[in-house]
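#struct-help
A.M.: can someone run this one for me? Single chain, 414 residues.
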Amino acid sequence: MQRKIKHEEAIVETPGEPTGAEAVRFSALMIAVASDPRTAESEWRRLENFAINSLHQGFGWCLGWTEAHGREFAIVQGIAKGRTLLILPLEIVLEKGVKIARFPGDRFNNINTGLFDPDLAAPDAEELLNFAYALRIALKDRADLVVLDNIPLRWRGLRHPLTELATIENQNRSFQLPLFADFEATIAQLNAKSRRKKFRSSSRKIEAIGGYEYIVPRGHDEKHALLDLFFRQKGERLRLFGLPDVFQPREIRDFFHRLLDVPTEGSDTPLVLHAIRLRGEHEGHIPAIAGLSRKGGHVICQFSSIDETVCPEASPGELLFWLTIERSCREGAAIFDFGIGDQPYKRNWCSQETVQHDILLPLTWKGSMARPLLIGMTRAKAAIKRNPDLYSALQRWRAGQSLKKPETVTSDSG
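D.P.: on it. Structure tokens below:
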């Protein structure tokens, strides 16, 4: 049975508001655009360290995506007093004759914020209008439409600076579980008795066939071999249910392999793999894999897969989530994020649901024509996702299309 989830924004630690002496107004910003991410790397890495900024706009994440896809890059920088206080990393993609500037990562991003210095004061209405105009001037020769999607209007206790530019609610929401140092206090937010019972049952069933170990590989070869196994597991699982394989395109797999090689800083990492490996008669078999990212206290489950050819009654996926959440509590994380997309297992694990919005800013007449069409598509997707029968039919159609065109990138979060 699914639990009722609170419809509220996920809030963890709140950075301090800028003082009057430190605050820089939006009106003071000069907008500049660069094509080479390395020219902005120093300031980019400084901004990505602030807790309010999503890891999906981090330097390693964006560079890995862009290099894997070979697309044009536009790094929008807001500069004042010799400092970069704002970065919007954008890739330029051509969709049906319209050039769209969007965050690198596309549908694989679970939450987007852009990069903002806490010293940048919240803009008033006039400053936002001027900022939008400056974006049009800076990007009009590069793109027709700016699409900044999956932005929570309130995140980590702060209102997003671009909230008043929000165009429409995104068709997807994200799901989170607040974490405490005491794991028992964490699962007390859920049905703790039922959770413990499931964990004991899963452990007993696996112990009966030889037991298991919880692994987090660190060696290069082991990490990349496990990621390749995930791709195979996920592909087989999606085909079993007649769904398209979002991880099938070569450039998507290349991107995630690149993330595995990004150096970690302390506990922060764009991607680390966790898995259960069996012992005994099925020695070495891996029935469950999860890919996690972490920035500060924010842990995101980017993906997961299961192989139920051995002991499916043990629910290895649920067992792995228990172990990863328990470990996250022990390592001082503040929130475990299951990302975007409404699934029963997320609702069973999470107590919070975060609403996200999209910002669409036309830059040219083509962008002005495309904007209402994209808004209509978002509304249609939201309506379909609220209708289980329609959504299932759409997924079956998309699976058929992806089999005809293997290069097509599709996702259940679309």
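A.M.: thanks! Residues 97 and 239 are 32 Å apart (CA to CA).
D.P.: also worth noting: The two ends are 26 Å apart (CA to CA).
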